[in-house]
Specification:
By secondary structure, the chain is α+β, with helices and mostly antiparallel strands. A hairpin with a 2-residue loop joins strand 1 and strand 2. Helix 8 packs across helix 9 and helix 8 packs across helix 10.
Length: about 325
């Protein structure tokens, strides 16, 4: 397969799924999954950003907000699809309860859609509780009971530190789950494969295994940068308008209103850090890269093979014949 020169910049990105990977490249978006029978299924997925239709949405900051929302919706859709396709093998399907079979037969995709919506709502609710309400509650408790109201000017910084602590603890606990650890292995394979392509090397298992699994454009880095930016931006708002910090409900509303701005700034930074690696961007990216030690894991060869198929399809727009797990990189499967 023809590779790019190392110094040519071609935008590629991806996302780890359940037993699979999604890759975006110049020829489209591809999803490769390791199915229960051991084969790799690759599909091209239709994705057209609304930014192509409305040029105003490509303005810096605004484009970051749009990209984040689109990525959340599209990525969640593929995550649910991957979970549905890779959840059961034939033996497990035979052991399904009569109730499970009845639900599958009667509702099918509709039930998965309902479950998806419920999961999304619960997920956003949990995020709001952990990262918006809880830090404000803890601050009011400490400021009112222990500090006698003297910490009000430090509210934004205090809450930001609490959010960082919660985020790190949450990610560590989630990483201990077996299923999530598998996703983190695919996450590591995604990063390694992107690095291999960006360095101009042939997409082989051996080449990819040599690459680092910590990438500056990762979503983990984006989230962590967003949290750090929220401390900075909310501190500026708190200093400029101190009255807004006096009431918890008002302050939470303010944080929600400035969140799009923070996401937009974070998006621009992550793009610059990935495109122009230098001492400054590396220093600022360091906390997010450190977090990737939790959210990525070293992949095995079979997982890397899935990443290769997804990347090849995203770069060429062509789909290889389905691969069995024991076939590996045979000459007939190489491009």
């Amino acid at each position: 397969m023809k590779q790019q020169k190392k110094n040519d910049y071609v935008a590629v990105g991806g996302q780890a799924l359940m037993e699979g990977i999604m890759m975006r490249g110049p020829k489209g978006t591809a999803m490769s999954l390791r199915l229960p029978d051991g084969s790799i299924e690759t599909q091209m997925k239709e994705f057209v950003s609304v930014r192509k239709k409305y040029k105003i949405l490509n303005i810096p900051i605004i484009r970051g907000i749009v990209a984040f929302i689109e990525s959340m919706i599209f990525g969640y859709k593929l995550l649910m699809e991957s979970a549905e396709k890779t959840a059961f093998d034939d033996a497990e399907a035979e052991n399904e309860s009569k109730l499970d079979k009845w639900i599958s037969e009667k509702f099918g995709p509709k039930m998965m859609a309902v479950i998806g919506v419920i999961s999304a709502v619960l997920g956003f609710g949990l995020a709001f509780l952990l990262f918006m309400w809880l830090p404000s509650f803890v601050f009011d408790l400490v400021n009112g009971k222990l500090a006698g109201g003297s910490l009000l000017g430090w509210r934004a910084v205090f809450e930001g530190i609490i959010r960082v602590i919660i985020f790190v603890i949450y990610m560590i606990l989630v990483a201990r789950m077996k299923e999530i650890h598998r996703v983190y292995m695919y996450h590591g394979a995604e990063h390694k494969t992107i690095f291999c392509f960006e360095h101009g090397n042939e997409l082989t298992v051996e080449n990819i295994k040599k690459e680092r699994r910590f990438h500056p454009r990762c979503g983990t880095s984006f989230i962590f940068v967003t949290i750090l930016l929220s401390i900075l931006v909310s501190s500026i708002v708190a200093v400029a308008f101190p009255k807004l910090t006096e009431t918890r409900a008002v302050w939470i509303l303010v944080k929600l209103l400035i969140m799009p701005l923070i996401m937009g700034i974070g998006f621009e930074f992550i793009q610059l850090a990935g495109k122009y690696p230098n001492k400054l961007t590396k220093l600022l990216s360091a906390p997010g890269l450190l977090m990737q030690r939790i959210t990525t894991a070293e992949p095995d060869d079979a997982i890397i093979e899935v990443a290769i198929e997804a990347m090849k399809a995203a770069l060429t727009g062509e789909i290889s014949a389905p691969l069995k797990e024991d076939e590996g990189e045979t000459p007939e499967n190489e491009e």
